[in-house]
Amino acid sequence: MRLVCAPQDFPFVEDGALNVILYGQPGIPEDGQSARGSAGQAAKADFLRKRFEAAPRAWDFLSIALSVVTADLAVRRADSPDGWTREIDLTIAVADAPFWRTQASTIESALKFLSTDRWRISFVDGGMQPAPPRDPARPDEDCVVLLSGGLDSLIGAIDLTTSGKRPLAVSHVVRGDGQNQESFAAAIGGGLQHLALNHNANPPGSTEDSQRARSLIFLAFGILAATSLAAYHDGGQVPLYVCENGFIALNPPLTGARLGSLSTRTAHPEFLNRIREVLAAARLRVPITNPYEHRTKGEMLKACGNQQLLASLASQSVSCGRYRRYNYHHCGRCVPCHIRRSAFLAWGQTDGTSYKFDELGRDDGDHANFDDVRSVAMAIAEVKADGLEAWLGAALSYPKIGDAAAHKYLIKRGLAELSALHHLFGVK
């Protein structure tokens, strides 16, 4: 599928392409025109309302991310020949097209790793660059932390403040998570300045549910915010903290049926390292850091710098991969719920989370077809029988993954936490 993503005043002339209005509304199609999509208007307005001034290439990076997330929604996997892999051809209007053309292949590779689709990206002039505010606000925070409403980002924000950092909390607003994001920001470090943005990507027609490329928009919001801080305008670096336990970041395929993008790769080191290369080439002084790349979720809980605050908020956080499907309730059986529950067990604190399916070991009609429970059990059994190396196979064989030995040891410890959970519930 072909998409052309550009501001309202761009001369859309692509026959057969989906035209996407960036930072505006699609309006009512004129005679002979097909329906248009849109993305980013609210994010731009909310950011500028604070009188923040971001780097020009940070705005271009946001335009790229908005285009990608809209395409990820618009192109349905069910319509592809194999029912999963999509062909996505994107034309994106940016302010500095000559530079971004030098990065097209790197971005395509990063997106292919993220979603296992085939991406073709081209850049044209005409992208949006807002005029600098007359009286810009320059926040004095020294870093940015992504605050999702989940348990890992909660721990990350707490740890940053207890270590003496002053983070600006940036959230991507998702229905069901907004209240947590606000309450966590208010509770941590005496109250964090909080920037909550939403991509509002809205393609016409039915949309794709898998959303494997959405992590790019999280990073884009964080980068935009980081370049607005006083420290950045003074010529310094502003770290962007993406806090995710290393096991879920690597998300090793539990069985052969969960290969590739069938498991999410939001904070996978291979993906983050590819994006780091793009930011370095763009001279955006925003180093992306995951302080928990080599820690399990249980280890994160046990080492958190403010145990009292964490204990008061942890059960309020959201981890479930099917949270909205179960009416904003943790299912208790998906892989993220598994990892959450095993982490609480390793922590040794009471898990106050309410799970729809609490008893993982039950074998009856209500608890049949627990595919994720079986997948975890099969992984544990295979590692016990054949060893970690045989089970992992080529899961760590990526050129930019980093320290493979450290990742391997982390996976071993993460599986041990999951094994303890299954033993507790008598999963067979």
Describe the protein in words.
The chain is an alpha/beta fold. It has three domains: 2-124, no CATH class; 143-289, Rossmann fold (3-Layer(aba) Sandwich), CATH 3.40.50; 316-425, no CATH class. Helix content is 40%, strand content 11%. The chain is built from 16 helices and ten strands. The chain has helices spanning 41-49, 56-74, 97-101, 104-115, 151-162, 178-187, 215-226, 230-233, 246-250, 269-281, 297-303, 307-313, 335-347, 371-386, 388-392, 404-425, and strands spanning 2-6, 18-22, 37-39, 87-93, 118-124, 143-146, 167-172, 194-197, 240-241, 288-289. The strands form two sheets. Strands 3-2-1-4-5 form a five-stranded parallel β-sheet. A five-stranded parallel β-sheet has the order 8-7-6-9-10, with helices on both faces. Strand 6 (143-146), helix 5 and strand 7 (167-172) form a beta-alpha-beta unit. The protein is globular. It starts with a strand and ends with a helix.
User: For this structure, what is the CATH class of the largest domain?
Assistant: Alpha Beta
Low-confidence region ranges: 258-262
Principal-axis shape: globular
- Could you estimate the helical fraction of the residues in percent? 25-40%
Give me a quick take on this structure.
Helix 14 (371-386) crosses helix 16. The chain has helices at residues 41-49, 56-74, 97-101, 104-115, 151-162, 178-187, 215-226, 230-233, 246-250, 269-281, 297-303, 307-313, 335-347, 371-386, 388-392, 404-425, and strands at residues 2-6, 18-22, 37-39, 87-93, 118-124, 143-146, 167-172, 194-197, 240-241, 288-289. It is of the alpha/beta class and 428 residues long.
